[in-house]
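Duplicate of #3305? Posting structure anyway:
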């Protein structure tokens, strides 16, 4: 069914980043991958993670965190274009009451900003015990000083079995360190897709 939807969108051939990332996500690795916008990075994580969602199970199974409203909205549109799972968009600035109502509709996928997601978890309105994977899109921005605490707190409250997927235009060693700490030192594999660009490992 997923393949049919991809074909309808005209997506038949996987991009290089998808060829690298999809098999590793299917084998449950925690990964940080480097990929520029426009390389198919959203589908690189969506395709394998959507396959892990069990429509018979209740609860949020996939949590996608984005640093901006615009990016969160784009991911929601892309998710809905290739799947029929119920998706809730939870971003700051929008009325929280309406978002609590959305959560009562039992979405399988939640997409949002770290501060609002954390707020809804603290209010016990967003339950994360069924989460199979958490995605941090544009993780370099999510770990900027103003968002870092909310982002690492989110990672640390996920079930221990939840897979962590992070993607970014840059994979710095410091990003790996911060995320592994939040994962309580479970391993995170860094994949550098931009072979021609130097990854800044010194910081």
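Output from current build:
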């Amino acid at each position: 069914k997923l393949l049919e939807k991809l074909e309808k969108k005209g997506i038949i051939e996987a991009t290089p980043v998808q060829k690298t990332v999809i098999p590793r996500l299917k084998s449950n690795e925690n990964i940080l991958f480097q990929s520029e916008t426009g390389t198919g990075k959203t589908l690189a994580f969506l395709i394998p993670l959507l396959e892990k969602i069990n429509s018979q199970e209740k609860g949020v199974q996939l949590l996608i965190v984005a640093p901006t409203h615009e990016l969160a909205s784009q991911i929601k549109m892309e998710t809905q274009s290739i799947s029929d799972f119920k998706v809730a968009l939870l971003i700051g600035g929008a009325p929280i009451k309406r978002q609590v109502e959305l959560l009562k509709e039992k979405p399988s996928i939640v997409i949002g900003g770290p501060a609002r997601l954390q707020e809804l978890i603290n209010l016990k309105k967003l339950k994360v015990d069924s989460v199979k994977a958490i995605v941090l899109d544009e993780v370099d921005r999510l770990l900027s000083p103003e968002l870092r605490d909310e982002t690492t707190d989110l990672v640390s409250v996920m079930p221990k079995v939840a897979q962590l997927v992070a993607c970014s235009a840059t994979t710095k060693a410091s990003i790996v360190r911060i995320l592994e700490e939040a994962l309580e030192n479970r391993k995170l594999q860094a994949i550098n897709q931009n072979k021609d660009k130097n990854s800044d490992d010194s910081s």
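Confirmed duplicate; merging threads. The chain is about 40% helix and 15% strand. The first strand starts at residue 31 and ends at 34.
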